[in-house]
Amino acid sequence: MPHEDEHDHEGSHLSEMELRVRALESVLHQKGYIDPAALDLLIERYEKKIGPRNGARVVAKAWVDQEFKQRLLAEPAQTLASLGYAGMQGEHTAVVENTSRLHNMVVCTLCSCYPWPILGLPPVWYKSGPYRSRAVIDPRGVLRDFGVELSADTEVRVWDSTAEMRYLVLPMRPLGTEGWSEEQLASIVTRDCMIGTGLPQLPGGTAS
Amino acid sequence: MNGAHDMGGVHGFGPVLPEANEPTFHAEWERRVFALVLAAGRPGQWNLDMARFARENRPPTDYLAKSYYEIWLAGLEAMLAERGLVSVDEMEVGRPLSEPKKVDGILQHSSVEAIFSRGRPTERPASSPARFRIGDRVRAKNINPATHTRLPRYVRGRPGIIERLHGCHVFPDTNALGQGENPQWLYTVRFDARDLWGPEADQMLKVSVDAWEPYLEPADRDP
Q1: Interface-testing mutation among A96, A119, A133, A140, with chain B (most B C-beta atoms within 10 A)
Q2: Alpha-carbon distance A48 to A36, whole Å?
Q3: A15, A192, B7, B64: least surrounded by Cβ within 10 Å?
Q4: What are the pLDDT digits (tens) for A96-119?
Q5: Residues of A with CB below 8 A from B193's CB?
């Protein structure tokens, strides 16, 4: 899983994998076990249509609309579904809110569980040893890897997604965003903010 | 199983290295493996928990040497071979050497949208009341099955508090063995970091797992 290694060996490594995967897909197709057009559509769906912009719109809406935020926290799956964000790996969802005294962070130490409908597919680091091993024993150290330093009196809460509950972190709205539109607000909500490894940054670069 | 996939608390992996502007996939074969795994899982030849076990059930050296989608591919190949759907020889030559098995429920292009926007909920009706209530002190059992489980090693034997109740969900430990969904109450159990990592641990850190009822016992019992 070491990342740099993968790049070092890209040439030979990838071509071997391409051949092996093509051979398997070919057998599966010839035996009638798969419809290659369905595969193309799945790839398009998860590469092009579904991603963290979905979650960012949810967070921005929760920042401007208290009633929506309360519903989102109380009935997350239904509230997300009402915006069209539902489906595979988002069937059961919990939204956990950051406050000035509590910082939430999400991990899956056993594999790669992640809320696909609102964040898309997880990045490599989320699925890799360094994050999965350290998030539960040294989350402040992990946050420093992301350039985030929390004050010592902030409680850190790590949610290990060991079942089919998927977690979305609702970050705090930064000061200095008064009067912003939902669209402007969504633009500062990154994927990492919603995993809990980042904080929303104002365009000037100030952390909330 | 006590495999290399169960990584919580392991030292030595080094820093987390986020990639700027990371693409969803890093090679064409990753795209195909991702979609093959999703599509091949549809006909019900295996379930989610069997698929997870097929990925984690390998020597630690192998698990750690493989990239994420290499593990997905290895898991898929293992399940296809075990069920007699595609032989190892067929994978090698890339064409059928035997008659296909009759398989229903092949994922078609026309049904992708409906199936994947609906998902596959794991909550089931409860057949008995929940044993624990929010606020109860519990202990994660010290179990070490060689088969699939979703109770990570770092919480086994440790005391925690029931924080949330999520209804009854398919139980992975039996589902992975083909012994049925056997739905069980699912809880979020919160642990104080000092109960997981010792008295020197960060006193401002709490960690939770989602745990099915059979993983838990009342905390007043000896571990």
Answers
A1: A133
A2: 18
A3: A15
A4: 999 999 999 999 999 999 999 999
A5: 137
